[in-house]
Write a structure and sequence with these properties.
This protein is α+β, with helices and mostly antiparallel strands. Helices cover 29% and strands 20% of the residues. The protein has a domain at 70-171: Glycoprotein, Type 4 Pilin (2-Layer Sandwich). It contains two helices and six strands; from the N terminus they run E-E-H-H-E-E-E-E. The relative contact order is 0.10.
């Protein structure tokens, strides 16, 4: 775009885009678009930024709550390790899985507990040697929600299948079905 130069007579003079000029010959003010220097942010920009910040904060809090619940479920699996070892030892001696915790001389299930786990027990549902972890209420975990560790013997070793019909799927460890 070319430059605009002021002429002597205002009727023929193009309008300057960058400043306000006054024609001295006919005392007519020519209004020109002026470019203002912006200091700070508009209210709309601030509201949008605050909304985005609030949305990101909300998503962070939700994901942290899920991680907290997943940690509680993992704590139950950690406590169940002692019971898994007892079931495996019983299987190696007897050649079958125990039907209850009494067969492996395990302390009562309520003693193997903490703030998040109500009890851990050995039962025969769906198969002998099944370890049932019962959780206390916390967040989206209801009082009495259970996680089952089902033993399967394959070629001399024991594999554990993890199942739950009461816990939410996205809270279960990755190896649980």
């Amino acid at each position: 775009m070319g430059r605009f130069y002021a002429r002597k007579h205002c009727i023929y003079r193009p309008i300057c885009r960058y400043r306000l000029e006054t024609c001295s010959l006919c005392i007519e003010t020519v209004h020109v678009m002026t470019r203002k220097h912006q200091n700070g942010y508009t209210l709309f920009e601030l509201v949008v930024a605050a909304g985005l910040f609030g949305l990101l904060s909300l998503l962070t809090v939700i994901s942290l709550q899920d991680y907290s619940l997943q940690a509680r479920i993992s704590k139950g699996l950690t406590l169940a390790y002692e019971v898994k070892v007892a079931v495996a030892e019983y299987y190696s001696r007897a050649g079958r899985f125990p039907a209850s915790g009494n067969a492996v001389s395990l302390r009562p299930g309520e003693e193997i507990a903490d703030d998040y786990v109500k009890s851990i027990s050995i039962g025969s549902t769906p198969v002998n040697g099944t370890i049932t972890i019962t959780y206390r209420a916390a967040g989206s975990i209801s009082e009495g929600d259970t996680l089952l560790l089902i033993p399967l013997s394959r070629a001399g070793r024991i594999d554990w299948v993890c199942r739950s019909s009461t816990l939410i799927d996205n809270l279960l460890p990755s190896y649980c079905a």
